[in-house]
Design goal:
Number of strands: 7
Strand order of the largest sheet: 1-5-2-3-4
Structural class: alpha+beta
Oligomer: single chain
Strand content: 5-15%
């Protein structure tokens, strides 16, 4: 029987701890608000990870790692369209394109990148299926979970700190208008540029995250970096209702304010 539950009750790090202590073999399925992920283990060791529709094939992983150029990738796909990962890996090694170490290091980097992103998932559901593993034609690795869990715990603390810095994702962003604050002069990666393209008082931070299929932690990290760089500022999203306290009290005009201050001064003098 599969172990399943809610990530609000049992965090990803806690699940990894359980897998490590019990030396479990199987696949963990995680279903987040926008995407699903799969992480596989053998005898308590991390061996494989896949996030949503990302290209987790060997060729896709090597392309992300910069080990294969776009033109090389097209050529490989043309000449070996039906090759499984293990077969393709041997082909690349025998052809002198890459070493076995290059391939394993690229896969390890991709797997860890996926797993560390999953540590920021706090909404969703999980299911652990015993003895379910990736197909035999996949290239797997073996990583001790202790170090992965330690790093994951550190990243959770980062997430909590970012949540304190940017508590309300229903606020919006706007570009700062000041000399020298030019977003075009900043070096951003593809994901960061996607976020920047949505910055508008009409779009809340939460809406930007959903449009880019990002977790709350991922969007907070990018927004925090933009705030620290002085490129954007947080504003109330257009159409966002005022808090009840702001709706309840009408602004006091300057004449009333002066009268109130004078009364307070007179009251203090009479004490």
């Amino acid at each position: 029987m599969a172990l399943k539950g809610n990530l609000r009750d049992f965090s990803v790090v806690q699940i990894f701890n359980l897998v490590n202590l019990a030396r479990k073999t199987g696949t963990l399925t995680l279903e987040g608000p926008n995407v699903a992920a799969w992480v596989s283990f053998r005898d308590g060791k991390l061996i494989h990870a896949q996030l949503g529709n990302e290209d987790g094939t060997l060729l896709g992983v090597l392309a992300k790692a910069g080990k294969v150029r776009p033109e090389q990738s097209k050529l490989i796909k043309k000449n070996a369209p039906e090759k499984a990962d293990k077969e393709l890996g041997l082909l690349l090694i025998n052809a002198g394109y890459l070493s076995q170490q290059d391939i394993l290091a690229s896969i390890q980097h991709y797997v860890l990148d996926v797993v560390y992103r999953l540590f920021s998932w706090f909404d969703g559901f999980f299911r652990f299926d015993n003895d379910v593993l990736p197909p035999d034609d996949h290239i797997t690795i073996r990583l001790d979970l202790e170090n992965v869990i330690i790093e994951g715990s550190r990243r959770i603390k980062e997430v909590e700190a970012l949540a304190d810095e940017i508590p309300n994702l229903d606020m919006a962003l706007t570009f700062v208008e000041r000399p020298g604050a030019n977003i075009r002069n900043v070096h951003l990666n593809t994901i960061e540029w996607k976020v920047v393209s949505f910055i508008n008082p009409k779009n809340s931070i939460r809406q930007i995250a959903r449009a880019n299929k990002m977790s709350e932690a991922e969007i907070r990290k990018i927004v925090y970096a933009l705030l620290e760089a002085g490129l954007v500022e947080v504003v109330r999203a257009e159409g966002m209702p005022l808090p009840p306290q702001a709706q309840k009290f009408k602004p006091v005009d300057e004449k009333q304010r002066t009268t109130l201050v004078n009364r307070l001064i007179d009251r203090i003098r009479s004490l």
